[in-house]
Design goal:
Two copies of one chain form a homodimer.
Chain A (H helix, E strand, L loop, with lengths): L2 E2 L2 H6 L8 E12 L3 E7 L7 E6 L5 H4 L7 E10 L7 E12 L14 H6 L8 H23 L3 E2 L5 E2 L11 E3 L25 E3 L4 H11 L1 E9 L12 E10 L3 H22 L1 H10 L4 H10 L3 E4 H10 L16 H11 L4 E7 L15 E9 L3 E8 L4 H10 L8 H8 L5 E7 H9 L20
Parallel strand pairs in A: 1-2, 4-6, 7-11, 13-14
Antiparallel strand pairs in A: 2-3, 2-5, 3-4, 5-6, 8-10, 9-10, 11-12, 12-17, 14-15, 15-16, 16-17
Helix pairs in contact in A: 4-6, 4-7, 4-13, 6-8
């Protein structure tokens, strides 16, 4: 009996395989002449196909020559090594059996398709080389994130997605409800009676797990979330989706320098993991999507990230010989043009900007002694812009209470968050990485819709 | 200068630490007499505390003796090894500095608190030994799941949470909307105009990623989801939550036997990982929560899981000398009492039940040749009941189309799912594991609310 093998096993075997083998996979292409035919077979175990050579003496040779793309076949044969050919081996088929039918009108014929078209067949696009590569890399990057953090004793915490908190100004939220919209319960004043909703109050989908995960850092020291977050913004850019994944590490007894050290280490570790686990996929994307990809990632791994204060960065931008669309002055929230100029033109590598004006940052960031800035940091990377945002958290109870007032937030709603300080004012810090932005950075794909299996954007929730 | 260390580093050091050390952590208890005082310090790196011995000649000795629980302190001192004492070492303090205040009315004083009370302070309960252990084990179990699957080339796929599909009868769903409930747009007939909602149609929170992830198995071979799912059911049991995490592996070229092999391998691998990475936490839970825990997990790892058909299991139940509340006959959906009898009394270990009546299983499960059953499998485990549910998927396009009709589902809505067969009828199979049930199994905790950081159940969405 032939030995069952996968394409990946054949490509990675230490020694030549001499016994008969059996492979099951999908037909990618078939061409057959009178005497001999060739099938490109893929079985999902590898981006690479294997070539099946079939001689015309196979009993069903004529039918095999007409198999539609994506037919499932089982091949028995021998491995013939071809050291001089572009492919290191091929399979000489002793038998080929069609085990699963496919229709003739397969929508992914061999020619190139636009990304726009492929989004309309999101259930089939993983069968293309590009999306095979993107989604394999997405998976490997996710695992590399877990591995880096777990190796350092970070505890993975699944913070809730349904929340009764507001968004701390981070963005618009989606309402979650079981009320019958065609028959809403009303209170005496004619307003919707939220107390009759599933959770007996108004609930929404979270924009961040940071605040709830802080409570775990104050017990388990180093923790992280890695899960979905949501923004109900009517945004149609290539960098925003309504549903996306965030990585949010949070560390007790840690300051802004620790944020930079850990996030830099994490990003480099992810890229190194991809270099050793996704060579084929990175090479394919470099050849077909972004020819700067491998060079950019190599630089990212090899160079120390730059570190500069916001205030110094403003100086650099003001002295730059560039006509920015938005004028630069201390206090502004930097635009993509400014961020990209810094990372792509000035430093030519990722750069941390620290100590932003307090007025443009969130209430929970720790006030610096200058009373103008907070201990915040953003990492700006070439091509993408902001990839990481972090801060030291305001751990001083009285200062935090004042900031909650200054930001017009409800002290009642944040009482539990103040409690974390009331029962232990502990220095702590954390950061967030938009996982899809990271995947864009490591694949060279420039539209967020093409790194998400089934993207959700305004007007789009198909499949 | 003293060397900064963590408690974990001290407990796991290969050789005795002789240089001066500096530790920062939280005060768990303090007691001080005239001449000497003791602080139990925890820094989150370990479930274990370290004892700090302070002599009365410390300049702030009197104040230190009155420190509230959860004060953050930095200790400099030397490690004194105490091989004959229960604790292998203690720290003789040269200085202790209070670096973070805590209030005197800390709600977690040393006495035992009920789980119910601790749920009301979910932001503080990770600071207890029980919840420290539970959430550390939850994290390690999650990583062990990823590691097992990634080691076998399974590709992690983040299927969408916001969906426009229905739930295939799996349960009630939460509506996701940005419509203003107090000012709903109406169509000409007076119904809510869903086309004006964010996604231009009605959307809900998913109950399962299985269907969308199947499309990836048919390209990437072995894939899995691991993410949140939702049920809007008014269920108040100890085993149901409104938001919970599911692990859903899906494999191309795989049948029901593969489902059993992989899920058994996965569960055993997770438990082995915990045995080697969470000894302290498992021992604590065994001593304080469930004294059968380690024995049960050891059996699970060492014994081959039993495998029996549903039909044979019905025979066994009918012949059992037990008065079940629900009478047993072929065709019923087994109740918890039946499931637990099989795993706890008959097999005394996890047992796979296979080939269920088609009428009680989902439309996508593959019809067996007997025309009465489907290639479905549930894993029943002691104490928990159903832990895994899986099936071979119906890959025959015509059969699946008929089943969609028989189940009164919309062929339009499932056209993309039929497409997966139209363009490749490939044998494939998968399973789902409720992650919280797994965490309950490996911690001995018997209420799902106590294995979720911030549990969501009807009427509860706090923090």
């Amino acid at each position: 009996m032939a030995k069952q093998v996968t394409v990946k096993e054949l490509y990675t075997a230490d020694t030549e395989v001499t016994e008969p083998v059996e492979l099951t996979g999908w037909v990618k292409t078939v061409r057959a002449s009178k005497n001999v035919g060739f099938v490109e077979l893929n079985d999902g175990s590898s981006l690479k196909n294997v070539q099946i050579v079939m001689k015309s003496d196979l009993p069903n040779y004529e039918a095999l020559g007409k198999m539609p793309i994506s037919t499932t076949i089982t091949v028995e044969g021998t491995v013939a090594y071809t050291p001089k050919a572009p492919q290191p081996f091929e399979i000489h088929a002793a038998s080929i059996k069609e085990v699963g039918h496919s229709d003739n009108d397969y929508p992914l014929q061999k020619k190139k398709h636009s990304y726009e078209y492929l989004r309309t067949i999101a259930h089939l696009r993983p069968r293309t080389n590009t999306f095979y590569s993107v989604f394999k890399i997405r998976s490997l990057a996710a695992f590399a994130v877990h591995q880096y953090l777990q190796d350092r004793d970070f505890v993975y915490v699944n913070t809730p997605l349904i929340t009764s908190s507001d968004s701390e100004g981070a963005g618009e939220m989606f309402r979650v409800t079981t009320l019958d919209l065609n028959n809403l319960p009303k209170d005496e004043e004619g307003h919707v009676d939220d107390t009759q909703d599933f959770f007996k109050k108004e609930t929404n989908l979270t924009v961040s797990g940071q605040l709830p995960v802080e409570s775990f850092a104050l017990a388990l020291r180093n923790v992280y979330t890695f899960g979905p977050t949501f923004r109900a913004e009517n945004s149609h850019t290539t960098r925003h989706a309504s549903e996306f994944w965030m990585i949010e590490p949070e560390m007790a007894f840690a300051d802004l320098k620790d944020v930079m050290d850990v996030s830099e280490g994490l990003l480099k570790s992810v890229i190194r993991y991809l270099f050793s686990h996704a060579q084929d996929e990175l090479q394919f994307l470099n050849d077909n999507v972004d020819d700067q990809l491998i060079e950019r990632l190599t630089t990212t791994v090899n160079e120390e990230f730059a570190r500069v204060t916001y205030t110094d960065a403003i100086d650099i931008l003001q002295q730059a010989d560039v006509d920015f669309e938005e004028p630069v002055e201390w206090g502004i929230d930097l635009d993509a043009e400014h961020e990209r100029y810094l990372s792509e033109q000035v430093y030519k590598k990722p750069v941390f900007l620290t100590d932003y004006p307090k007025d443009i940052k969130a209430f929970y960031m720790r006030d610096n002694a200058d009373e103008k800035t907070v201990a915040a940091v953003d990492l700006l990377v070439p091509e993408i812009g902001e990839l990481v945002g972090g801060s030291q958290r305001e751990e001083r109870e009285a200062v935090l209470a004042q900031k909650i007032q200054d930001f017009n937030l409800s002290e009642d709603e944040y009482q539990w968050y103040l409690d974390l300080r009331k029962y232990g004012e502990t220095e702590h810090s954390g950061f967030g990485i938009g996982f899809e932005r990271l995947v864009m950075y490591v694949t060279g794909i420039d539209n967020i819709r093409d790194v998400i299996p089934y993207p959700r954007t305004p007007g789009n929730a198909e499949f």
